[in-house]
Amino acid sequence: VTTTTRWLMTQPLTDDFERMFLENYDLVYRAAFSITGNAPDAEDVLQTLFLRLLKRENPVQVEKNPRAYLYRSAVNGAIDLVRARPQAESVVSPEVLSANAGEEPRDKRSAEIWEWLNGALAKLHPKEAEVFLLRHIEGYTNMEIARLIGVTRGTVAVTLFRARVRLKKSIRRRFGDAL
Amino acid sequence: MKRNSAAEILERAILEGRKAMPSPREVDDVGMRVLDRLREADVHVDVEPRVKRARPPGWWIPVFASTLIVVLFVALQIFFFVLLDRSEGVHLKMPPRAAESPRAIPVKPAAPAVAVRPKDRGQTIRIANAANGQTLMLTDGSRIELREGSELTIEDRPDGTRINLAAGSVIVAAVKQRGSLVVQTNACTVSVVGTVFAVTASAIGSRVAVLEGVVNVEARGGSSQILFAGEQFATRSELRRLTLQDEIAWSPNAATYLALLQPVRPQGGRGGGGGGGGRGGRGGPAPGAPTQAIPQTPQAPVGDPDVNETLRGTVTLPNSNQGVPDVQ
After folding, report:
1. Residue A158 and which of A8, B18, B116, B318 are 20 to 30 A apart at CA?
2. Is A42 within 8 Å of B10 when comparing Cβ atoms?
3. pTM of the model
4. Interchain CB distance below 8 Å, A29 and B27
């Protein structure tokens, strides 16, 4: 017989929870950062995610594959956060995307491209964004991604292909005349 | 300006994205900061204790015993049900409760109703001597109480149920019918919607007595007659005339049936002695329509064989080769 008890958590974190946090916080934070594009929002995603775990809102999935669950939750949380923002038109200009935009300060160009990529990733399907980030930002191989998120390598390849196609379409739609 | 393909721009964006990612030190700083906040967090936690109660040794014995008892009980129930069903050759079925059937007539416990199974349909049913009151139950809840020595068959037809009464007497307590419930003798056909009535079939003719409701009687010659509660019908004047009380005296539930007539008695008949016409003839009034029927109490005298004379509550229709009598 199990009963649910509600109490104010005052005791220290359990060793299991702390170990899970220490093993995965970097992955979660970087995933959130690559979509939100800024540190405060990524930190907010990280904290919210582990607070939910502390409340045991999703214990079952965590126990099955904690790393995959945490990464996916981070991507979803970051996408939700970005989509909840007021929509602003991308300020990135075609010239900034051009390889010959030498007159632009490099830091400024990078920031603008980065901002565009964040917005484009947030518009992808969460699974596509997840695979794309793991492959191209985190540098995992398709096999490693497949093991991490619990799918086949073929599924990873297809998802990755779709993500790239969508992002290219997004580029053409946004900068069609300049390409 | 050099033109760039979408793929090239995407590759560049990816490169910029990698460069923009926070350094490991920044990530560690954030991680430790969040961890500290989690350690200090006052969190309302819903906890399902994972503590498993240690089961005492032999815990399975009472569980096993309880399961075994339940299984044995169910098996015995099934066994006795099947055994009883086979030994008596009938499928016992509880009669419907009175609340479910507004016309349900309580029967004596000594004469349990026997459900007529589909395979019994069309087969001749004979009631042994000294078996007065044996009751058959149709699937719709209608009950047929039989007199000893009666012989009948029950048929399913597209338009309803037909009871062919070859000999003997029956009292039918019919529930409201979707189709029709018809009792046919060699001399007449009685169709009902929902009522209680008695039919007696003999070699020379048939008698019908209505205890409750309305029935339509059609003689073999085609003459139809509407009978209301308290009224009787005979196909031939030669038939021995009985009071309603005597008509159903064989039934163990006679008193119950007669009690149905009690509300009729004080009325003294519906329009008795009123205008004639239509009664007793072909194409008579539809069931429920105003009629010239002559009610009869169970004690009413019946008996003048002359059908042209007033027979209080008794109407006699001729056979096919006879004319339609004027009961008034």
Report:
1. B18
2. no
3. 0.40
4. yes
